[in-house]
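User: tokens in, sequence out, please.
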């Protein structure tokens, strides 16, 4: 089923690595344009596996994945198809330090992602400048390389690269988990603003429920590869039905909690 506005649909997804018990077992959900679905659960619950299947880096054992109404359950057959898929869905990884090319400047890294969409070469520099501004970096960052950036700045570059092809969906796997709390809040504000401006949908994978309230519309709680419960942020945080969800919430700092400032 494909309702208007659904940019990602996952149906009865199963992923088993080798002959072990499935890491993901019969998971179904959908995500609409302009919305954020948080995928939460303990380490090993299967969150990253779902993200990897959706982004096409891991093949499903069974089940369906649709992005913008197109079937993604089989790998891309050609470079052209991979490019098309990149225009629909992008990934922001946990640690962009390992995915950004250390020899490439910020400007070149973003320009490379801009070129995925094609279009006139002479418009690209302006687009890079727009993207830098969108993620709160300045022209001065353009010539820097990843080692000269802070963790928060690298994450902004990764977000700019993901936004460059104007995808309908961005998968963020623990994208702010490595950042300290104040930088985390800045990046989340940035993601919220970008979503309002562009209507991009986010699949926001995290083990940290403290950030979920700040970004998500809906939450899916995973437990050992299966859906434990799913609902709006208000219902999951306000009236969790399962004891597993309650235990996750109890292990999470309360809203309004502020860490002691260091330094
Ligand atoms: N490439 C892999 N090969 C074998 N097992 C894996 C692989 N990736 C993940 N797993 C296993 O699948 C389960 C789910 O892992 P993962 O999706 O990374 O969970 P999460 O992101 O929620 O921590 C874990 O038991 C993990 O050990
Ligand atoms: Mg993970």
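Assistant: Sequence out:
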């Amino acid at each position: 089923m494909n309702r208007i506005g659904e940019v990602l649909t996952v149906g009865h997804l199963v992923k088993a690595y080798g002959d072990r018990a499935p890491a993901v077992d019969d998971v179904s959900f959908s995500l609409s344009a302009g919305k954020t679905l948080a995928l939460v659960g303990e380490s090993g619950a299967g969150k990253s596996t779902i993200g990897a299947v959706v982004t096409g880096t891991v093949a499903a054992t069974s089940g369906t994945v649709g992005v913008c109404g197109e079937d993604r359950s089989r790998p891309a057959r050609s470079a052209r198809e991979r490019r098309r898929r990149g225009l629909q869905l992008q990934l922001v990884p946990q640690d962009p330090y390992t995915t950004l090319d250390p020899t490439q400047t910020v400007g070149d890294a973003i320009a490379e992602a801009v070129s995925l969409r094609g279009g006139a070469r002479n418009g690209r520099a302006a687009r890079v400048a727009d993207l830098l501004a969108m993620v709160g970096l300045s022209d001065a960052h353009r010539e820097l390389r990843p080692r000269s950036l802070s963790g928060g700045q690298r994450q902004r570059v990764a977000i700019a690269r993901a936004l460059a092809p104007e995808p309908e969906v961005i998968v963020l796997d623990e994208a702010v988990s490595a950042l300290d709390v104040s930088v985390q809040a800045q990046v989340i504000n940035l993601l919220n603003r970008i979503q309002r401006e562009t209507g991009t949908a986010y699949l926001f994978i995290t083990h940290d429920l403290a950030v979920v309230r700040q970004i998500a519309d809906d939450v899916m709680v995973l437990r050992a590869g299966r859906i434990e419960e799913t609902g709006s942020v208000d219902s999951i945080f306000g009236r969790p039905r399962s004891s597993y969800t309650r235990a996750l919430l109890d292990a999470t700092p309360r809203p309004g909690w502020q860490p002691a400032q260091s330094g």
